[in-house]
Amino acid sequence: MTTIRNIRIRKILDSRGNETVEVDVITDNGLGTMSAPSGASTGIHEVDAFPKKGVDEGILLFKKKVIPKLLGMDARDQLGIDGTMKELDGSPKLSNVGGNIIVAASVATAKASADALNIPLFMYLGGRFVKHFPYPLGNMIGGGKHAVGGTDFQEYLVCAIDPSPKRTIFANAKVHKAVKKALATAMPNTPLGKGDEGAWIAPMTDEEALKLVSGVCATISKEVGFDVRPSLDIAASSFYEKGQYVYKKGKKSPKEQVKFVAELIKKYTLHFVEDPLEEDDFAGFAELTDLVGKQCLICGDDLFVTNKERLLEGIKQGAANAILVKLNQIGTLSDTMETIKVAHEHRYKTVISHRSGETTDESIAHIGVAFGCHAIKTGAVGGERIAKLNELVRIADYLGL
Ligand code: PGA
Ligand code: ZN
Known about the structure:
binds 2-phosphoglycolic acid, 16 strands
């Protein structure tokens, strides 16, 4: 029933118009399809998305070397299949076949099993008894590498905190609209554009943008009757140069950066701050977590790159209290599950996440629910973002939430 009979791979477009891949895994009576996203502010410790020679080279190798070995395997043997793909790639960063191809095949395998068993992916992954539905973290104002001419910080997010998934998703969309209105009032003569994740681009200072988003959060929280809290992805590695954080208006030393972020967290009662320091500064993360980790989630994205070994190093040093989870940073579903397990064992919160270049694939909605992630970062609007949000609504319906 779950024996793999055929695997197909094709090149498709992502939301930025870049090439990516989609993989179909076909069993006797099941079909699973997954397409891989890609980042713009990628961490240096992530696996490689595609081989150096490009997507076509990876597809060629996958067809020649990997598919023949997977045919006939049982799609339920996720560990075996992921292990086989990693072994056939043979490099530590999956740079021969490419992490994006391997991750698409890995998740498509789980989806094919779920389909053959006639259950939704989140159920197949053990989510029937889920107690916590992930809160949506949506990007409202975008800067950094996602939006030319915007803020230094990459993402001004909001997190709606309520047990009802439907209420939270619609609250985030309300904030997105209200932020547009607030920006138009604050800068009536500036044309408003959107960045890669559908967030507004605002030529403002970081504090101006934070103040605006936080004001809108207060208004919408009152209106909806639950907390909608401001949050940030600073993506500090993207403006870290030679030991300093280089802002449009001046530089900060790592010590000053810790102090600055701690003050912002207190002043704006932030719920979540991602990558406040550059991607190798475990000690700086530990210092900040020590200062404000009780009131705010300090999250490692580029710091941990969904890698269990890097997470364990963080746990040892007390760096951060949350981890961002992106499947294509590590390359397989089973490695992703393992990292989430370690995080939860050590009381780190997990936040499953989209990438800035996305497809309409909805898998992360299922994975976030199944593994009890604290939140799901997947934008607030735009076709490739609502593909995940609307899937969450469907899952909520299925669970009667
Ligand atoms: P990326 O960035 O998908 O462009 O790498 C998103 C993030 O930093 O969270
Ligand atoms: Zn990030």
